Amino acid sequence: MAISENKRKMLAGELYHAFAPELVQERRRCSHACHRFNNAGEVTRRKLVELWQDIVGDQKTLPSQLIDQENDDALFDEEPWIEPPVHIDYGTNVRMAPKVYINFNCTILDTCVVSIGTRTLIGPNVSFFSATHPLDPALRDGTEGPEGGKEIHVEEDCWIGGNVIVLAGVRIGRGATVGAGSVVTKDVAPFTCVAGNPARFLRKINTEMNHQQNVHKTKDISNEVVGPEQPMAELAQKLEQKTL
Hints:
alpha/beta; seven-stranded mixed β-sheet; five-stranded parallel β-sheet
């Protein structure tokens, strides 16, 4: 399907005009879709997946519904789990891999593609800003001037703590951890821990995961606390003290 030159520039990270009627309409569509998702209330997993597909423009057909609710829910175990509310500009530029978890109040400005890799965990109040503006105020010119953008990519098996901001053009490498409250302005190397504003390297992550292949070795994790609910700020502070 052909797209306008203005939208092509947007997706390519070139200067474009965000208030062209076409793009205003696309943002309005996504806003309505987010409203339906955020206000769905007590609905089935199937319905939440359907509402999420509406946000991101995913038109794939859902599997046939099963009579037993638990079995029907299990059909969507591979689907990303998104906690409402979410706030997204376009939706159609978001790429979400299987088994991703995003906690509540995530904001995604998807001027350009924002991709989240498999098994990545994202804490509450995390923002992905792929949109940018010219520094020159004469060129920026409020709503009359052009905007820009750069893609954001979060690779597989990452953990991003609460209240993190990821800026345009950043790639977070596989298996990386970003401490709570960080502002990520530059690429993060795979299997490293970063924290701070701006986020800086704290340490490498020791892992039994194969760095080249998607292989997980079995190990005892019965006493580990994992997931975005862990106090990332305390973890980052401890790690930083060790490196000073």
